[in-house]
Amino acid sequence: MLISKESDLPVRSTLIAWTEFVTLCDCPVELVQELIDLGWIRPAQSANQADLYSHGDVYRIRKLRRLCADFDLNLTGGAIIVDLLGRVHELERKILELQGLVK
């Protein structure tokens, strides 16, 4: 059977499985698990209840590790800073959007 419409094609997920996630984060599994336990990383659930993670979470964890290493911060302090930087970025994006400079 031929697929008649583009909407009939399967959609490729942008989410990644645990093994790839930990590899991309390039950090100890225990650290990733601690961030999940703290609720800082919230995995999505697949249809078969497997945890799936976003590339944005990889970016956040890598940024967290850099900040903690560069400024000798504990995990909680680094997480707060990463969250605040994310909020600043989002507010800047909204301002530019309101000015018609970004969509």
Short description:
Helices cover 56% and strands 7% of the residues. With 103 residues, it is mainly α. The mean pLDDT is 89.
Shape: flat
Q: In this structure, how is the largest beta sheet organized?
A: 3 strands, antiparallel
Query: What is the CATH first-level class name?
Result: Mainly Alpha
Structural class: mainly alpha
Helix percentage range: 55-70%
Uncertain regions: pLDDT < 50 for 5+ in a row? none
Determine the number of helices (DSSP H or I, runs of at least 4 residues).
4
Query: Radius of gyration over alpha carbons?
Result: 18 Å
| Mean pLDDT metric | 89
Portion of residues in beta strands equals 5-15%
Q: What is the total tally of β strands?
A: 3
Q: Tell me the distance between the termini.
A: 39 Å
- Any guess at the CATH architecture? Orthogonal Bundle
CATH topology: Multidrug-efflux Transporter Regulator, Chain: A, Domain 2
What topology, given as strand order, has the largest sheet?
1-3-2
Number of domains: 1
Order of SSEs, N→C? EHHEEHH
Describe this structure in words.
This protein is mainly alpha-helical. It has one domain (13-98): Multidrug-efflux Transporter Regulator, Chain: A, Domain 2 (Orthogonal Bundle). Helices cover 56% and strands 7% of the residues. It has four helices and three strands, in the order E-H-H-E-E-H-H. It has helices spanning 18-25, 29-37, 55-71, 75-98, and strands at residues 16-17, 44-45, 51-53. It has a three-stranded antiparallel β-sheet with strand order 1-3-2. Strand 2 (44-45) and strand 3 (51-53) form a beta hairpin. Helix 1 packs parallel to helix 3 (55-71) and helix 3 (55-71) packs across helix 4. It starts with 15 loop residues before the first strand and ends in a 5-residue tail after the last helix.
